[in-house]
C-alpha cells in the first residue's frame, strides 16, 4: 500500500515555537514573579587580584528596602565544596576551590564579594553603593606566556604554579600513526607557524538569570540554562541537598552558545540565600555583568608544525597549545582544548601526529565552552596551515587539500587521532561550492587586480572542515575522564484522543527542537504534525537527560525520540492484531494505520489509543498503555563536513575588509527541517566571521576588561555581513538510524579560517602571512605597512607594536 501523506522529515516547516517567542507570549526567567519574592544584587571586585582586608555592610543593611546583606564568610560554611569542575583531564590537574563569593582573595575583576537582598531589584542595586570594601592589591598575571614565566605572580599561591594541567596525545604511543619527530627529521618541507585565538564573549541575547523558591515540598529553581538536568545534580552535590528535593526548570531560554553550560556561583548563592531566608529570591545580571562575570571562550596560543614532501603529500602534524583557563576552572573548561585534539588532523590523512596542551591560570574571568568548543580552534589552526603549506609549495590551496583528504571511497576511515569517520564526500561538497562560488573566475579577477596594482585587492579563503558532533559515546567520555555520560533520554505519551506528548531531555535555547521533534514523531507514528506537543526543560516532567550542547540534540536526543516512537508501535501492534482478530505477522504499519496485508481492514493509532484508554478489549496480559521511553547512547560521534569559500576585498590604503561573497556547502547528513538547518548555518557563520573580523575581549594591564559593553565589544549586524550562498550535499551518517550528523556549530567552526585565509590571500604579495584576529582595519593596515616597509617597498613606517604581525617568526 502506498502512502499519500507527505513525509515531515525533510520538510521546511516554520518553527511552531516562534509565534510565542517572537510575540513575547512566553516565560523567561526574569519575568517570573513569585509571592513575597526578594531580589539579589552582587557587588563585584574592581581589581583582578587583591586581598580583601575588610567588608563593612552596616550602611547597606539599613538602606531602603534591604532585607539582608551577605558576604563570602556568611555563605562559606554551606558551600565549602566550591563550584564544580566535571572534567579533570589528568590525575594531577590542579583544581582550586572557587567560592560562591570571595571572602579572602579576589582573583579576577568581576568576582563577587557581597550580595544585597532587597524587596526590589532597584533597591538591591542602589544598596551596593553603601558597601565599603578595603582591598590590598596583589600582582596581576595576564597572558599565557607571562603566566608560565619564571618568577611570575601566582593566581593561586597555594598551588605553587600557574600551570593547571598538561595533556598529551601522540600517535606513535597510541598506535594510530608514526612518530612526528621522525616526520620532522625526514620530510622535505617543515613549516612552523604561531596563531592566536583571541578571547571571546558568548554574548547571548538573554542575560543569565535564576529564581529559587524554597517554600514548597521541593526546592524549585528556574534558570536561564542549557543544562537543567546537570544543574539539578550539581546543585544537590555542591550544596549537600537531597537530589529528589530539587527541581530545576529552564523556561524559554534566549540563546546560550555554550555560555549557559556553567553551574554558576550565582545559582548556588541564590539557593543558599533562599533557604536561609525561607523566601523566593531572584538574581538577574546586567549586560555589563555578563561581560565580566559570565565565562569567556577560546583564548589560546597555537604553535603548529606541519611536514610534507615537495609533491604536497603531508607527512606529519605537531600541535603545541597554551590555553587560558582564567582564574578558576569551569564546568568543562579544562576539556575544551582536548576536544580540539581530535580535530586538528581534520579531513587529512596525516601519518604522524602529536598534540600537547598546557592549561594555564591567569587573573581573568574563566573560560569554558563557546560555540564549537575546541573544534573551531582546531579547524582554524589546520586550515591556516594548509594555506601556508600551499604557498610554500606553490600549489593551489584547494589542490593541496584534495591531494591529502580522505576520498569518499575510503570511508569508514580511522584517523591518526583514533576516531573513525563513518561517511563523507569531500569531493562532492567542494565541487558544488566551487561552482556556486565561481572559483576559477575569481582567481582570474584576483590576478588582474594584482597586475593592475588596484588599491583594493581580492583574496580567496578556503576552509574544508569536519567536526565531531553528538557529544558523545559515554565510554569515550569515560576514557577522557569526563564525569558524566553522553546518552540522552526521551519519552512519548499517547493521550486517549491520539494526541502525542514528547518529553525530551534535550532542552532547547533557540534551536527549534519542538518543531523538529514533532516532525520526527509525526512520520514515525503517522499522526498530524499539529498533534504533537514537545515538553522539555523541567526536571520534574523530563526526569532524566544530559541536556543541550556539542551539536548533540538531534543526533542523540532526536534518536532517543525515534526509538521511543518505535517502542510505541511495538506496544500498539499486538493490540491492533487483537482488535482486528488477526496475527501480528499479518500486519503492516504505514501512515498512522495498522493494515491487514492484502486487505482494506485497518485501525489507526488514534483508535488504538482510545482502546487502550478504555481498556475494555485488550489482549490478556497486555498493559493498558502505549507510553514508551528510550535512552540512547551513541556508539560513535557523527562527522558533518563542508567546504566554505570566501571572497574578501581589502582596501590596502585603509585596511578595510569587505566580504564580497561567501559560499558554503555543508553535509549534515539527513536534514529533518532544511529551514532550521539554514538558520543554524546562518547564525553560525555570523559568529565565526565575527571572530575573524570583529570580536575580542581585551583586558588592560591591571586586568580590567576594557571591552565590557557593546559599545566597545563589537558584534556584527546584518549590515556588516554579506548575503550567504548556502547549499548541502548529503551522505547519511551510519552511526544513527536517522542518518543525521548535527549542524549547530558547523558555520562557526568553518567560517573563521575561511575569512582569515581570504584576507591573508589578498595581501600576501606584500609579504604578510598572518594577522592576529580580529582583523580590524588598523591591524590589516599595520601589517601591510610593516611588511612593505621591511621589504623596501611602499609605506614609510614599519607600523610596529603588533606582536601578531611577526607571530610566525622567520619560519617560511
UniProtKB/TrEMBL annotation:
Q: Where is the composition biased (Polar residues)?
A: 725-737
Q: Which InterPro entries match?
A: Ald_Oxase/Xan_DH_a/b, Ald_Oxase/Xan_DH_a/b_sf, Ald_Oxase/xanthine_DH-like, AldOxase/xan_DH_MoCoBD1, AldOxase/xan_DH_MoCoBD2, AldOxase/xan_DH_Mopterin-bd_sf
The UniProt record lists the Aldehyde oxidase/xanthine dehydrogenase a/b hammerhead domain at 23-139
Q: Name one GO molecular function term.
A: oxidoreductase activity
Region entry Disordered, spans: 725-744, 792-812
Provide ranges: composition bias, Gly residues. 792-803
Instruction: Name the coiled-coil region(s).
Output: none
Q: Give the keywords, sorted.
A: Molybdenum, Oxidoreductase
Which superkingdom, per the lineage? Bacteria
Cofactors needed by this protein, per the record, are: Mo-molybdopterin cytosine dinucleotide
Alphabetical list of PANTHER family matching this protein: ALDEHYDE OXIDASE 1-RELATED, XANTHINE DEHYDROGENASE
Protein name, as recorded: Carbon monoxide dehydrogenase
The protein's organism comes out as Amycolatopsis orientalis
Amino acid at each position: 500500500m502506498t502512502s499519500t501523506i507527505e513525509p515531515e522529515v525533510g520538510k521546511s516547516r516554520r518553527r511552531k515555537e516562534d509565534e510565542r517567542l517572537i510575540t513575547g507570549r512566553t516565560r523567561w526567567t526574569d519575568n517570573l514573579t513569585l509571592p513575597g519574592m526578594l531580589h539579589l544584587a552582587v557587588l563585584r571586585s574592581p581589581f583582578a587580584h587583591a586581598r580583601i582586608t575588610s567588608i563593612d555592610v552596616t550602611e547597606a543593611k539599613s538602606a531602603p528596602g534591604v532585607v539582608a546583606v551577605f558576604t563570602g564568610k556568611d555563605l562559606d560554611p554551606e558551600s565549602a565544596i566550591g563550584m564544580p569542575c566535571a572534567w579533570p583531564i589528568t590525575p594531577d590537574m590542579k583544581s582550586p576551590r572557587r567560592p560562591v563569593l570571595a571572602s579572602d582573595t579576589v582573583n579576577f575583576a568581576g568576582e563577587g564579594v557581597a550580595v544585597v537582598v532587597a524587596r526590589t531589584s532597584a533597591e538591591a542595586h542602589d544598596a551596593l553603593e553603601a558597601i565599603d570594601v578595603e582591598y590590598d592589591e596583589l600582582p596581576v598575571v595576564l597572558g599565557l606566556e607571562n603566566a608560565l614565566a619564571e618568577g611570575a605572580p601566582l593566581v593561586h599561591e597555594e598551588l605553587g604554579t600557574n600551570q593547571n594541567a598538561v595533556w598529551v596525545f601522540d600517535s606513535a604511543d597510541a598506535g594510530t600513526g608514526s612518530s612526528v619527530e621522525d616526520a620532522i627529521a625526514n620530510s622535505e618541507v617543515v613549516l612552523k607557524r604561531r596563531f592566536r585565538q583571541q578571547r571571546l564573549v558568548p554574548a547571548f541575547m538573554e542575560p543569565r538569570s535564576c529564581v529559587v523558591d524554597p517554600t514548597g515540598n521541593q526546592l524549585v529553581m528556574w534558570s536561564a540554562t542549557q543544562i537543567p538536568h546537570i544543574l539539578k545534580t550539581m546543585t544537590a552535590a555542591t550544596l549537600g541537598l537531597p537530589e529528589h528535593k530539587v527541581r530545576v526548570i529552564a523556561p524559554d531560554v534566549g540563546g546560550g552558545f555554550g555560555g549557559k553550560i556553567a553551574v554558576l556561583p550565582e545559582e548556588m548563592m541564590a539557593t543558599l540565600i533562599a533557604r536561609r531566608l525561607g523566601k523566593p529570591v531572584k538574581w538577574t545580571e546586567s549586560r555589563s555583568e555578563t561581560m565580566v562575570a559570565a565565562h569567556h571562550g577560546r583564548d589560546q596560543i597555537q604553535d603548529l608544525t606541519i611536514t610534507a614532501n615537495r609533491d604536497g603529500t603531508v607527512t606529519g602534524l605537531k600541535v603545541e597549545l597554551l590555553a587560558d583557563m582564567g582564574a578558576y576552572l569551569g564546568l568543562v573548561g579544562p576539556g575544551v582544548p582536548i576536544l580540539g585534539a581530535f580535530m586538528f588532523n581534520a579531513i587529512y590523512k596525516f601519518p604522524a601526529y602529536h598534540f600537547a596542551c598546557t592549561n594555564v591560570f591567569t587573573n581573568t574571568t574563566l573560560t569554558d565552552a563557546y560555540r564549537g568548543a575546541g573544534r573551531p580552534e582546531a579547524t582554524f589552526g589546520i586550515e591556516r596551515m594548509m594555506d601556508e603549506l600551499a604557498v610554500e609549495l606553490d600549489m593551489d590551496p584547494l589542490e593541496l587539500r584534495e591531494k591529502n583528504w580522505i576520498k569518499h571511497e575510503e570511508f569508514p576511515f580511522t584517523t591518526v587521532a583514533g576516531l573513525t569517520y563513518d561517511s563523507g564526500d569531500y569531493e562532492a561538497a567542494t565541487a558544488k561550492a566551487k561552482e556556486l562560488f565561481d572559483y576559477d573566475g575569481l582567481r582570474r579577477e584576483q590576478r588582474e587586480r594584482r597586475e593592475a596594482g588596484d588599491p583594493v585587492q581580492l583574496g580567496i579563503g578556503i576552509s574544508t572542515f569536519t567536526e565531531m558532533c553528538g557529544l558523545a559515546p559515554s565510554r569515550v567520555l569515560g576514557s577522557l575522564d569526563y564525569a558524566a555520560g553522553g546518552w540522552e533520554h526521551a519519552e512519548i505519551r499517547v493521550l486517549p484522543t491520539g494526541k502525542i506528548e514528547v518529553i525530551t531531555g534535550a532542552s532547547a535555547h533557540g534551536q527549534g527542537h519542538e518543531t523538529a521533534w514533532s516532525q520526527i514523531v509525526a512520520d514515525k507514528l503517522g499522526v498530524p504534525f499539529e498533534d504533537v506537543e514537545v515538553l522539555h526543560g523541567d526536571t520534574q516532567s523530563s526526569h532524566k537527560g544530559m541536556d543541550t550542547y556539542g551539536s548533540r540534540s538531534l543526533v542523540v536526543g532526536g534518536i532517543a525520540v525515534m526509538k521511543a516512537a518505535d517502542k510505541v508501535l511495538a506496544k500498539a501492534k499486538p493490540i491492533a492484531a487483537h482488535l482486528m482478530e488477526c496475527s501480528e505477522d499479518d500486519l503492516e504499519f504505514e501512515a498512522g494505520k495498522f493494515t491487514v496485508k492484502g486487505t482494506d481492514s485497518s485501525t489507526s493509532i488514534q483508535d488504538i489509543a482510545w482502546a487502550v484508554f478504555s481498556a475494555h478489549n485488550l489482549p490478556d496480559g497486555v498493559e493498558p498503555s502505549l507510553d514508551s521511553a528510550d535512552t540512547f547512547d551513541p556508539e560513535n560521534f557523527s562527522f558533518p563536513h563542508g567546504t566554505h569559500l570566501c571572497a574578501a576585498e581589502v582596501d590596502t590604503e585603509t585596511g578595510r575588509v569587505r566580504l564580497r561573497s561567501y559560499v558554503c556547502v555543508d553535509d549534515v547528513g539527513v536534514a529533518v527541517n532544511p529551514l532550521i538547518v539554514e538558520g543554524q548555518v546562518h547564525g553560525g557563520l555570523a559568529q565565526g566571521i565575527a571572530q575573524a573580523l570583529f570580536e575580542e575581549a581585551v583586558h588592560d594591564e591591571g586586568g580590567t576588561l576594557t571591552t565590557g559593553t557593546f559599545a566597545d565589544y563589537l558584534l556584527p549586524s546584518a549590515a556588516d555581513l554579506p548575503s550567504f550562498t548556502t547549499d548541502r550535499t548529503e551522505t547519511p551518517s551510519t552511526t544513527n538510524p536517522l542518518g543525521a550528523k548535527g549542524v549547530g556549530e558547523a558555520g562557526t567552526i568553518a567560517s573563521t579560517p575561511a575569512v582569515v585565509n581570504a584576507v591573508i590571500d589578498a595581501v600576501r604579495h606584500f609579504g604578510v602571512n598572518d594577522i592576529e584576529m580580529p582583523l580590524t582595519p588598523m591591524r590589516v593596515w599595520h601589517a601591510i605597512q610593516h611588511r612593505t616597509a621591511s621589504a623596501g617597498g611602499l609605506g614609510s613606517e614599519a607600523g610596529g607594536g603588533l606582536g601578531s604581525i611577526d607571530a610566525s617568526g622567520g619560519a617560511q
